[in-house]
């Protein structure tokens, strides 16, 4: 049992804030690509959460939107009337931009042969029995502002794979559920999805706040979880968790290393006190992470998420000569640290976990003025220079043009592509009948040093493994005054 396991510090700080938030998702499910219908449906509550997640609220930026499609290239996503399912959507699309019917004549897709379109349908001569997959995550409250795109992108992946013939020729349905950050609820939802919806695997579960209950349930049911947010060590400790990228501790070394490579070798750490895991998680950075990155720890201080002012910590870090400050806290606290340090004229490089920062917080001009070095386990969503990244951007553009690419979104897409690749490794066996949990576990055991066409690096699993090994290779992202960039592009950095 793992219900008492604590979650690492650098990613759980925001969990405390969830308890005071009145926003909670109901049990309405998202059904994606149901039984070959080619339709993705998001609940009204899901649409509301996506709007809340957009920077500035009320408008979702549209990459490359032409003038006249809303202010500053946005599509207006104001409140919908009850029961309304479309607003400012092109014909044949719902509000996510997902196609809800056959491509129209002349669209360039409807009349293409399967082989020309490529992908999963190229070898499909018949439609096989549908397969149900589940997704569990913390998609409501303040955490939902960060994770919402992961749920939408899981639906986009299902739409995309069904347009290519299905998962090993099996039409995909994804059932997504919100656990509200509650480990007990996460466990209950996993069991419910398995018993009622007959899911044979889970995909891109965003369970950093609820990992203990989630892990217990999948291990009890022997149900594979393929990909997730990768912000807990559990992803590399369980026999039933199959990460699509590098592990949590390697990501810590990664963001520290990025700062060191920028010449910021003297490191201070600020970490929350409300959760025991804060001190436990930062302990890795002190004992191993800083040394592996080539830095020197010069200052270390606990903070509270409820603090409104961090002047004392900023002054102490400045006096210690720290030129890189690790922020083990949520994005809201990061912005307050930035203001406190700026007020005394102290401008070190910040570093930390990007997965705790919403798009609105990343737009904060004071935080941007410091720079924030982060590292992720999969390739940067900012790039388009590999076949895998191009396919990701093309899917978003086709099915959800109003959705901005971001970290949680590309994690979800990469999770889906990992499952596709694994089943491709089984060949005809995956198309011999219904897809079962046993077949998916066998398929995952065939994955060897996989990069998914540039989406990740060195993912390897073995049959009947006790746990997945981290590849040790991460990717750099940096928040600058102009927004997120990838200092090394899509090139991996092995730590």
Task: Give a short synopsis of this structure.
The protein is an alpha/beta fold. Helix content is 35%, strand content 16%.
Q: Would you kindly provide a written description of the structure presented here, covering whatever features stand out?
A:
Helix content is 35%, strand content 16%. It is an alpha/beta fold and 495 residues long. The chain folds into two domains: 9-246 and 384-464, Rossmann fold (3-Layer(aba) Sandwich); 249-376 and 477-494, Rossmann fold. Residues 1-122 have low confidence and may be disordered. This is Leucine-binding protein domain-containing protein. Belongs to the leucine-binding protein family. InterPro entries: Leu-bd (IPR028081), Peripla_BP_I (IPR028082).
The whole-angstrom Rg is 22 Å
At the fold tier of CATH, the topology name of the largest domain is: Rossmann fold
With helices defined by DSSP (H or I, 4 residues minimum), what is the helix count? 16
In CATH terms, the superfamily of the largest domain is: Response regulator
Average pLDDT level: 78
Number of domains: 2
Helix content: 25-40%
Approximately how much beta-strand content do the residues carry?
15-25%
Protein structure class: alpha/beta
Instruction: Describe the largest sheet.
Output: 8 strands, mixed
Low-confidence segments, given as residue ranges, are 1-122
CATH architecture of the largest domain: 3-Layer(aba) Sandwich
Apparent shape: elongated
- Tell me the span between the first and last alpha carbons: 32 Å
Give the strand tally: 17
**CATH class descriptor of the largest domain:** Alpha Beta
Organism: Sporichthya brevicatena
Family: Belongs to the leucine-binding protein family.
Signal peptide: 1-25
Region (Disordered): 55-122
């Amino acid at each position: 049992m793992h219900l008492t396991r604590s979650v690492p510090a650098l990613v759980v700080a925001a969990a405390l804030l969830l308890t005071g938030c009145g926003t909670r998702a109901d049990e309405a499910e998202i059904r994606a690509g149901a039984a070959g219908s080619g339709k993705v449906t998001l609940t009204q509550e899901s649409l509301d959460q996506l709007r809340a997640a957009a920077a500035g609220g009320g408008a979702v930026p549209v990459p490359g939107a032409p003038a006249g499609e809303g202010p500053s290239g946005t599509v207006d996503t104001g409140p919908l009337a009850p029961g309304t399912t479309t607003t400012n959507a092109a014909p044949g699309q719902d509000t996510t931009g997902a196609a809800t019917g056959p491509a129209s004549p002349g669209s360039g897709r409807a009349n293409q042969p399967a082989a020309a379109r490529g992908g999963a349908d190229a070898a499909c001569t018949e439609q096989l029995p549908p397969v149900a997959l589940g997704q569990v995550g913390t998609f409501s409250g303040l955490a939902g502002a960060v994770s919402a795109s992961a749920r939408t992108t899981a639906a986009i992946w299902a739409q995309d794979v069904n347009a290519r013939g299905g998962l090993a020729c099996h039409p995909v349905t994804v059932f997504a559920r919100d656990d509200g950050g509650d480990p007990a609820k996460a466990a209950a939802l996993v069991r419910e999805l398995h018993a009622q919806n007959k899911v044979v695997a889970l995909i891109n579960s965003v369970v950093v706040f609820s990992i203990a209950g989630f892990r217990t349930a999948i291990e009890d049911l022997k149900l594979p979880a393929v990909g997730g947010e990768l912000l807990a060590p559990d992803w590399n400790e369980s026999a039933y968790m199959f990460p699509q990228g590098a592990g949590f501790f390697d990501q810590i070394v990664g963001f520290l290393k990025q700062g060191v490579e920028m010449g910021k070798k003297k490191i201070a750490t600020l970490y929350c006190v409300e959760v025991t895991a804060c001190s436990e998680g930062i302990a890795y950075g002190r004992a191993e992470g800083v040394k592996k990155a080539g830095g020197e720890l010069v200052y270390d201080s606990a903070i509270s998420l409820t603090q409104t002012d961090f002047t004392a910590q900023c002054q102490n870090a400045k006096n210690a000569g720290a030129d890189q400050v690790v922020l083990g806290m949520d994005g809201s606290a990061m912005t307050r640290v930035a203001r406190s340090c700026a007020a005394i004229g102290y401008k070190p490089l910040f570093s930390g976990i990007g997965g705790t920062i919403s798009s609105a917080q990343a737009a904060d001009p004071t935080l941007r003025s410091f720079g924030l070095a982060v590292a992720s386990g999969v390739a940067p969503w900012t790039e388009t220079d590999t076949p895998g990244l191009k396919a990701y951007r093309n899917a978003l553009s086709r099915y959800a043009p109003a959705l901005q690419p971001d970290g949680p979104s590309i994690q979800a897409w990469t999770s889906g592509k990992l499952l596709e690749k694994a089943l491709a490794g089984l060949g005809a066996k995956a198309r011999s009948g219904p897809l079962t949990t046993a077949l998916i576990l066998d398929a995952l055991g065939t994955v060897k040093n996989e990069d998914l066409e540039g989406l990740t690096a060195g993912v390897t699993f073995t049959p009947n493994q006790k746990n997945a090994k981290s590849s040790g290779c991460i990717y750099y992202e940096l928040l600058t005054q102009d927004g997120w960039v990838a200092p090394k592009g899509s090139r991996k950095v092995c730590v």
